[in-house]
Write a structure and sequence with these properties.
There is one protein chain. The protein folds into 3 domains: 1-36; 41-217, 3-Layer(aba) Sandwich (Rossmann fold), CATH 3.40.50.720; 225-311, N-(1-d-carboxylethyl)-l-norvaline Dehydrogenase, domain 2 (Orthogonal Bundle). Helix 8 (225-241) crosses helix 10 (264-271). It is α/β, with parallel strands linked by helices and 318 residues long. The protein has an 8-stranded mixed β-sheet, sandwiched between helices. The N and C termini lie far apart (90 Å). It has 12 helices and 8 strands. The chain is globular and about 55 Å long. It is 53% helix and 12% strand. The protein has helices at 2-36, 49-60, 72-91, 97-105, 130-143, 159-164, 197-209, 225-241, 247-258, 264-271, 273-287, 296-303, and strands spanning 41-45, 64-68, 107-110, 121-124, 149-152, 172-177, 186-191, 213-217. Helix 6 (159-164) links the parallel strand 5 (149-152) and strand 6.
C-alpha cells in the first residue's frame, strides 16, 4: 500500500510539473501574440465628426495618431474641430495649454492611405455605405502590415461582410463610438464570425485605455444601439408626418416624460438625417421587417439636402 501511495504521489507530481510547463508555454505563446497586437499607433480613415473625435480621444490617451482623408481641406477642418474641443477643456480647467499642444502634436494628417502602413490598428470612419466601406477595407488590407487590426466605426453594417473583403477576417472588428466621441463613454464592440479572441482582447484593452466602456454585441444589423434607437426616431418622424404633434411637442414629451436628454427629432438632426436613413435601410434590408421602413418624410428631407445640424436645416433650423 505504501509503495502504491508513493507511486501515485510521484505520478501526481510529474503530472503537476507537466501541467505547469504547458501553462508556462501557453503564457509565453500568448505573450508573443499580445506583443504582435500591441497598439501604439492608431490610424483613422475619415476626418469627419466621428473620425476627428476618435483621433482626439486616442491622442489624449497618449497614442500616436495618423488621421487620413482624401484632401487637405477636410483634414484642416478636422484639426480645427479637435483644437476647439480641447480649448473648451482648457477654459474649464480640465486641461492645461501645454497638455493640449501635446495632444494635437500626436496627431499627424495625411491624404495618402499609404501613410497608414505604420499603424497598429486602423479605425475606418467613412460614410455609412457598404460598398464604400468594403473598398476602404480592401485598400487597407493591401497597404497595412498583416498583423494590424482593421476596425470599423460602422453603426449598422455587418462586420463579417467587411472582414470578407480582406485576407485577415480574424483581425477585423467593429468599434462603434458614440457621438460626440470625446464625451460619450460607450464603445459597442462587434465581432464578425471570424474575429479572433486575440483581436477582441486587444481592442477591448484599447477601449479601456481610451477611458471608454466596451460592451460586446453580436454581428446583427444595427447591432444594439441603433436597432433600438432608430425605430424610436423613425416613429417620432412618423408622428410629425401624420400631424400627431408639432416637433416641439414630440421632443418635449420625450424629454420631460421619458427623461431623455434630447428629443428624438433633435437627436436625428444631431446624428444626420442621411445617416439615420442609411441605418434604417440596413435594418430594413437585413431583417426584411416593415417596422424598419423609413418614414417618407425622412426620405424627403434627405432628398432636399436637409440633413440636420451639419447643413443648417433638418427638423429644426440652425
Amino acid at each position: 500500500m505504501l509503495w502504491r501511495w508513493s507511486v501515485e504521489v510521484r505520478q501526481a507530481v510529474s503530472l503537476s510539473r507537466d501541467l505547469t510547463l504547458r501553462q508556462a508555454n501557453s503564457l509565453s505563446y500568448f505573450k508573443v501574440m499580445d506583443s504582435k497586437l500591441s497598439i501604439g499607433t492608431i490610424g483613422v480613415v475619415g476626418a469627419g465628426t466621428m473620425g476627428n473625435g476618435i483621433a482626439q480621444v486616442c491622442a489624449r490617451a497618449g497614442l500616436k495618431v495618423i488621421l487620413q482623408d482624401i484632401n487637405d481641406e477636410f483634414l484642416q477642418r478636422a484639426m480645427a474641430a479637435v483644437d476647439k474641443s480641447l480649448q473648451r477643456d482648457v477654459e474649464k480647467n480640465r486641461l492645461d495649454e501645454q497638455a493640449k499642444l501635446a495632444i494635437t502634436g500626436r496627431i499627424r494628417t495625411a491624404t495618402d492611405m499609404k501613410a497608414l502602413g505604420e499603424a497598429d490598428l486602423i479605425v475606418e470612419a467613412v460614410t455609412e455605405n457598404l460598398s464604400v466601406k468594403t473598398g476602404v477595407f480592401h485598400q487597407l488590407d493591401d497597404l497595412t502590415r498583416p498583423e494590424a487590426i482593421l476596425a470599423s466605426n460602422t453603426s449598422s453594417i455587418s462586420i463579417t461582410k467587411l472582414g470578407a473583403a480582406t485576407r485577415r477576417p480574424e483581425k477585423v472588428i467593429g468599434m462603434h463610438f458614440m457621438n460626440p466621441v470625446p464625451v460619450m463613454k460607450l464603445v459597442e464592440i462587434i465581432r464578425g464570425i471570424a474575429t479572433s479572441d486575440q483581436t477582441y482582447d486587444a481592442v477591448r484593452g484599447l477601449t479601456f485605455k481610451l477611458e471608454k466602456t466596451p460592451l460586446e454585441c453580436n454581428d446583427m444589423p444595427g447591432f444594439v444601439a441603433n436597432r433600438v434607437l432608430m425605430p424610436m426616431i423613425n416613429e417620432a418622424i412618423f408622428a410629425l408626418y401624420e400631424g400627431v404633434a408639432t416637433r416641439e411637442s414630440i421632443d418635449g414629451i420625450m424629454k420631460l416624460g421619458m427623461n431623455h436628454p434630447m428629443g428624438p427629432l433633435t437627436l436625428a438632426d444631431f446624428i444626420g438625417l442621411d445617416v439615420c436613413l442609411a441605418i434604417l435601410n440596413v435594418l430594413h434590408d437585413g431583417f426584411g421587417d416593415p417596422k424598419y421602413r423609413a418614414c417618407p418624410l425622412l426620405k424627403r428631407y434627405v432628398d432636399a439636402g436637409w440633413l440636420g445640424r451639419k447643413t443648417g436645416r433638418g427638423f429644426y433650423e440652425y
